[in-house]
Design a protein that fits this description.
Structural class: alpha/beta
Number of strands: 12
Shape: globular
Distance between the termini: 14 Å
Largest sheet: 6 strands, mixed
Length: 242
């Protein structure tokens, strides 16, 4: 399969491979009932999928989101598919990740936070690299005053809504191991800077200020077959990475 970059946005995408069928979605922004209603419709029409991968802002700082989340967390409503989400993209969203550290964990039955950064291998052998957080100033993360170079490792073990350079370096180190051949999927909430290079630029977006070079380095080093991101409320599928 060719490598490509795609802003998943709100649409639910089906990634159908011979060995695995998965769904990918972008910024849910607290619309949990709408998300899982759409997923149930897809499952009914198209059959079984192994998992749902979510990038971008999964939660929102709204009463509607808190009410819908409470129904899921307390088991009043069921999540129809194994769902994997990234960490917060805003300090206001950390309230939904209470009790989790940078290694992630179960948020509620059938919804798991992958963590701050790492590699995950499914039972069928699919390799997924992931990096949580947004660059300072991106949408809901704009309350942070750090620059990307300042957002390095700290003593805190909590999930950080800002991408940290030390975490990027940790993931990049995987690519330096002997015999490394790339990963199947890279999940980041933030875009890579320069996504328009060797491709058609996204429509309606100022690419000069979009994304961060930290994610660009991840994509360059990890060599993903697929890369999904969100946060900018546009859909863009670029030509394969070169």
């Amino acid at each position: 399969l060719s490598r490509y970059y795609c802003d998943a946005h709100w649409l639910v995408h089906a990634l159908d491979q011979p060995a695995m069928r998965i769904l990918v979605v972008g910024d849910v922004e607290g619309r949990l009932q709408a998300l899982f209603a759409r997923v149930r419709s897809v499952l009914k029409k198209s059959g079984t999928f192994e998992m749902l991968l979510c990038v971008g802002a999964f939660f929102a700082d709204t009463g509607e989101c808190r009410e819908q989340w409470e129904a899921l967390a307390e088991g009043q409503e069921e999540v129809p598919i194994a769902t994997f989400v990234l960490g917060p993209t805003s300090p206001k969203h950390t309230q939904f990740y209470k009790g989790l550290d940078q290694d992630g964990g179960e948020l509620c039955p059938n919804i798991t936070c992958l963590g701050q950064r790492g590699m995950y291998t499914t039972s069928s052998g699919l390799t997924i690299a992931y990096m949580s957080g947004a660059k300072p100033g991106t949408g809901s993360s704009s309350s942070s005053s750090q620059t990307p170079s300042q957002a390095t490792s700290t003593d805190s073990k909590n999930l950080d809504p800002v991408i940290r350079e030390a975490d990027v370096e940790s993931l990049v180190s995987f690519s330096k191991r002997e015999g490394y051949k790339g990963v199947d999927i890279l999940l980041t909430s933030e875009w890579p800077h320069g996504v328009q290079n060797f491709s058609t630029p996204p429509t309606g977006l100022d690419v000069s200020s979009t994304g961060t070079e930290l994610v660009s380095r991840l994509a360059l080093s990890l060599k993903p077959r697929y890369h999904f991101s969100a946060l900018y409320h546009v859909f863009h599928e670029r030509t394969p990475y070169r």
